[in-house]
Design goal:
Largest sheet: none
Strand content: under 5%
Radius of gyration: 38 Å
Distance between the termini: 10 Å
Mean pLDDT: 93
Shape: rod-shaped
Number of domains: 1
Low-confidence stretches: none
Helix content: over 70%
Number of strands: 0
Length: about 180
């Protein structure tokens, strides 16, 4: 083998090796991007689950607080009736009944207000949970796209490398080196 053919063979081999190394780098980059996106998607799914638990907790706390408000109103009505009876007021009279009815109404308003606040809090958390779910889906698509882009880049590099090697081979053959 002559020095020219040796150099030509080295030139072709380095073109093949360079294309191979570029393809490996593209594959590793695609895998890293996909792994990062998959990790972020898993974090978003975890956040979605935590938010769902928080929403349920808000609803549960709201129920407890609503019940407490109703019990407070019932206790107050009981105290009012006892006080009225202790003063000799007939509890079924209009004015005495109006007072306890008004207390019951205000107590129910308080209970409904607590319940509405808990439902609003739960709704806001549920929206946040939905956003985490959407983020996870988007990140899963990004992971898939990263792998597709990596394969496409590798194919492009393989075609470019093959073209370069073929061009060099043809040039060297034409010059009579091979």
């Amino acid at each position: 083998m002559t020095a020219a053919s040796t150099l030509a063979a080295i030139s072709i081999a380095t073109s093949v090796a360079g294309a191979g190394m570029t393809m490996m780098g593209q594959q590793q980059q695609a895998k890293a991007q996909a792994a990062s996106a998959n990790y972020q998607a898993a974090v978003a799914r975890n956040n979605q689950q935590v938010a769902a638990w928080q929403a349920q907790d808000a609803i549960d706390r709201g129920k407890i607080e609503t019940d407490k408000k109703r019990m407070e109103a019932a206790r107050l009505i009981g105290r009012q009736r006892a006080a009225q009876a202790g003063m000799g007021v007939i509890v079924d009279e209009d004015s005495a009944g109006d007072i306890t009815a008004e207390t019951a109404e205000f107590g129910e308003w308080d209970a409904l207000n607590v319940q509405a606040n808990a439902e609003r809090e739960a709704y806001q958390i549920q929206v946040r949970a939905q956003n985490f779910g959407s983020e996870a889906a988007l990140l899963n698509m990004q992971a898939s796209n990263a792998m597709t882009a990596g394969r496409t880049a590798m194919l492009g590099t393989a075609i470019s490398g093959a073209s370069s090697v073929a061009g060099k081979w043809a040039g060297y053959k034409k010059e009579g080196i091979f």
